[in-house]
Write a structure and sequence with these properties.
The protein is α/β, with parallel strands linked by helices. It has six helices and eight strands. 30% of the residues lie in helices and 17% in strands. The protein has an eight-stranded mixed beta sheet with strand order 1-2-4-3-5-6-7-8, sandwiched between helices. 47% of the residues are buried.
């Protein structure tokens, strides 16, 4: 896992998402030292929320540098969050984007990986802000792996992953029997394995879980091609699993459902 050499949209060099607002969780800056806590960019609704979409970005296998706005793994999810905010707001759904403390997965014996710790921190902030509100996790790359690892959080009602990094043998025990998992992978991905993510889904299904795998033909890891397809998948999957919109027929069919409501 690593960062691609790509151009960064100028709007993201400041660490802020255009049109967004920082909540009470702190301000992101491009310091050389990792922050003590993760940060959240929040698109909150003005009324009582019907649900929350928590978005988790990608990263690297091992790296303790702080996550900065220029890193493609973060700003690609920032673009997705900005795209999702309008349809989500119409349905009374808040969209939160987590920015991890450090870039790496950083697995260590006896401790949860760093992004998993950060995601559980974010879920605690969701519980404080919106008690008893359902949450759908949307994770890209390493964030997809993180989403699967924290799917055991009580408020989580669904997991949506985009080009997830799911190594062979990745544990499936955090994904409950009643927590739907939707996995989409581009066939042109050279960073993470589409076959590994498909096998992960098969193992979840074999254990009795509700899971489905979909391919984006020609899609690459950072979702720069077929952008409308990725955006539509995220909206349909996230809002559908929350039950505020009908789950698109292909996604519902993959899970063995006829409708999300």
């Amino acid at each position: 896992m690593g960062a691609a050499a790509v151009l960064v949209p100028r709007a993201f060099t400041s660490g802020r998402i255009p049109g967004g607002r920082w909540g009470t969780m702190g301000v992101c800056d491009d310091s050389t030292m990792p922050p003590a806590e993760p940060t959240l960019n929040r698109y909150d609704v003005d009324r009582k929320a019907r649900g929350v979409v928590l978005m988790l970005h990608g990263g690297m296998q091992s790296n303790t540098e702080p996550v900065m706005a220029r890193h493609a793994s973060w700003w690609r999810m920032a673009l997705l969050a900005r795209t999702l905010r309008t349809p989500a707001r119409r349905q009374g759904v808040s969209v939160w984007l987590l920015r991890n403390r450090v870039r790496g997965w950083n697995a260590r014996p006896g401790r949860e990986p760093d992004p998993v710790t950060d995601a559980r921190w974010a879920m605690a902030r969701v519980r404080e802000t919106y008690p008893d509100v359902p949450v759908v996790l949307v994770g890209h790359s390493m964030g997809g792996r993180t989403s699967c690892a924290v799917a055991d959080e009580a408020a989580v009602v669904g997991v949506v992953t985009l080009a997830p990094w799911l190594p062979p043998g990745e544990p499936i025990d955090h994904i409950g029997e009643h927590t739907p998992l939707l996995v989409t992978h581009g066939t042109g991905d050279r960073w993470t394995s589409a076959e590994a993510s498909r096998q992960f889904v098969e193992r979840v299904r074999a254990s009795g879980g509700a899971a489905a795998w979909f391919a984006v033909q020609g899609g690459g890891h950072f979702m720069f091609s077929r952008v409308a397809t990725w955006n539509g998948y995220v909206r349909g999957a996230a809002l559908g699993l929350l039950g505020v919109e009908d789950l698109p027929p292909d996604l519902a069919g993959g899970l063995g459902q006829t409708s999300s409501r």
